[in-house]
Write a structure and sequence with these properties.
It comes from Aurantiacibacter atlanticus. By secondary structure, the chain is α+β, with helices and mostly antiparallel strands. The longest helix is centred in the middle third of the chain and has 28 residues, at about 305-335. It starts with 5 loop residues before the first helix and ends with a helix. The relative contact order is 0.09.
Length: about 600
């Protein structure tokens, strides 16, 4: 019997927990690869609670339940998750472990799926619960799967080859580099479970996760450069086997865990941040010597080859023309009051599809009108869809997956016909000033993202306001739209990536914003490439950013009087480049709009 309400699903889960003699269960957004975005079969939190964000967790006890999300989802979780069923908790102020310790009865047994959590998470949770007299229990199977009657099956889409010409390096070359690392570290093998790392190492892509071109699989690379690729056999085409050659052995995905017996007595590297508890547990059980090491693909994947950089520029130019066609269309249609969030997102998708090279979106388009734009990671639905009202702010954050690059752009648009209010222009201009400050900064090699974050916030801070998300994330090459290890964010609490030095060849977003709850949201996002810089009289090596995203920024929202001459020069130079790159791709009507949008301030 299918359960249509989230209350019925919660009740069914509690009955299943009681059957297993468990007092609680932790439900993350995760899959066996700790992916940020997961396939439909792994959307357990969404099925249970209705929450549609990309980060969060629920804890279900016999008589209590709570949702844990960070500041990006404070508004969204209240819109999507029934407050009569779940308490709302804010991370990092509220801790899952502390809440369970304080809420669950003494002696409680709290279950978790060892294929959905890291070892560090499980160890920390176990220690905290032990102090409270409770017990963390690793389960053999997920109790949600037992009650989710119409749970989808994992994708059966075939994997496909990412051409070496686009990658800039062959799989054999990448595996050879990993083999050299294994030998230098006196290791026998490395287990790679992050889907984008598997895809990058093998120069393979897939369609198993919405918006991220990866194939559900695991990889074990040996110290001789050969590898065992664990993937459902029906997903592997003759083209894929031909491209990989004999050095990559293709084995069934469901044989992955049992194959650990072959690593008994060997020194095996596993990344504790990107591999689940179960992998460590099974390797320990067969007698392997497990060493915690960062996935060897993470850093080289982030440093784009010359071919990948060239591909990104081509993808950005193509995508920029599509987004510009959309913005031109919006100028005419938006003020009529006939466009809503869903129809706007569909129109933007259509312009991208008309390029003939779009493989997928790189994430669900954030199409936020008015108050919905104040939710940083808003996801439009039939239930929440608002019209783009005349004289309001519209925020659209979107991107495309092309075989030569992954795009991610945010533009904030004033829907006329009247001029925007002074407060909106003030906030937009402060966001723009922060964007420019980060874009133009030069910095010495070895500088981390956390050292640069304040540049983008300074003008907002001067007005006593801020934004509740990082300023920049890494971006893949026809891979994840969010890619580590680099990021630009406040460095509190050892946030992942904030201590990573920025290196020439890395791609990041530059996306400061401002959000007024219940009214509007503002964000300006371009992707930027880290490049070497030469400065007269410089001492040491220096780096800077080069903007890859080329789309006009809405000039009607800018208060020119707030800008310095240098900031005006940036605007004029950037928009001259936008016009140069996009003009040859546009028809006469859109070109006329582009010319006006790119006029000097």
């Amino acid at each position: 019997m299918l359960m249509q309400t989230h209350e019925a699903r919660l009740s069914a889960l509690r009955e299943e927990l009681a059957r297993r003699k468990l007092d609680g269960f932790v439900v993350p957004i995760s899959d066996e690869h700790l992916s940020e975005y997961v396939g439909a079969y792994a959307q357990r939190l969404a099925w249970l609670t209705g929450f549609g964000g990309s980060a969060g967790a629920a804890v279900v006890l016999k008589d209590n339940a709570a949702m844990f999300v960070d500041g990006r989802y404070t508004i969204q979780v209240r819109d999507q998750v029934d407050g009569k069923l779940y308490d709302y908790k804010s991370v990092p102020a509220d801790s899952i472990a502390d809440w369970i310790a304080e809420t669950a009865p003494e002696g409680a047994k709290i279950g978790f799926d060892p294929w959905l959590h890291t070892r560090d998470w499980a160890n920390a949770m176990d220690a905290r619960l032990d102090k409270a007299g409770a017990q963390l229990v690793a389960l053999d199977s997920n109790p949600i799967d037992a009650v989710w009657a119409d749970q989808p099956e994992p994708s059966t889409a075939p994997a496909f080859v990412q051409d070496d010409a686009l990658a800039g390096r062959s799989s054999a070359d990448k595996r050879g580099e990993i083999a050299d690392w294994l030998k230098a570290e006196k290791l026998d093998a490395v287990v790679v479970s992050a889907l984008d790392s598997v895809a990058w190492i093998l120069n393979i892509r897939g369609a198993d996760v919405d918006h991220t071109p990866v194939a559900l699989s695991y990889l074990v690379v040996q110290e001789d450069g050969t590898a065992d690729w664990f993937i459902a056999p029906e997903k592997v085409t003759d083209e894929v086997t031909g491209a990989l050659g004999n050095a990559v052995r293709i084995r069934p995905r469901d044989a992955f865990s049992d194959a650990f017996a072959e690593l008994a007595g060997k020194r095996v590297a596993v990344d504790p941040e990107r591999s689940v508890y179960a992998i460590f547990d099974r390797l320990d059980a067969v007698g392997a010597a497990v060493l915690a090491e960062t996935d060897p693909a993470v850093l080289p994947k982030a440093i784009k080859t010359a071919a990948e950089q060239e591909g990104h520029r081509a993808a950005q130019a193509r995508d920029g023309a599509a987004v510009s066609r959309f913005l031109h269309w919006l100028v005419g249609e938006g003020p009529k009051g006939t466009v809503d969030e869903l129809s706007a997102a569909a129109k933007l998708y259509g312009f991208r599809e008309e390029t003939g090279q779009l493989v997928d979106l790189s994430f669900d388009t954030i199409s936020g009108a008015g108050s919905n734009g104040a939710q940083c990671h808003y996801r439009v639905s039939e239930e929440t869809c608002l019209p783009l009202a005349p004289n309001s702010v519209y925020l659209v954050d979107s991107g495309g997956q092309y075989k030569d690059g992954t795009t991610d752009i945010t533009r904030t648009v004033w829907i006329g016909p009247d001029a925007p209010p002074a407060e909106v222009k003030d906030r937009f201009t402060r966001v723009l000033q922060g964007h420019i400050a980060l874009d133009t900064q030069i910095f010495p090699t070895g500088t981390s993202g956390s050292a640069l974050d304040v540049l983008a916030r300074q003008y907002l801070w001067q007005a006593g306001v801020d934004y509740p998300h990082g300023t920049g994330h890494g971006v893949g090459s026809f891979l994840g739209v969010h890619e580590g290890p680099q990021r630009i964010a406040k460095g509190r609490g050892g946030q992942a990536g904030t201590d990573q030095a920025l290196i020439a060849g890395m791609i990041l977003s530059n996306e400061p914003g401002y959000y007024k709850a219940g009214e509007y949201g503002i964000r300006i996002e371009n992707l930027v490439l880290v490049e070497e810089r030469t400065i007269d009289g410089m001492e040491g090596d220096w780096l800077g950013f080069s903007a890859l995203t080329l789309v006009p920024i809405d000039r009607t929202l800018v208060d020119k009087d707030m800008l310095s001459p240098e900031q005006i020069d940036w605007w004029n130079t950037y928009h001259a480049k936008v016009r140069e790159v996009l003009a040859p791709q546009l028809d006469d009507d859109t070109l006329a709009w582009l010319e006006a949008a790119c006029q000097p301030l």
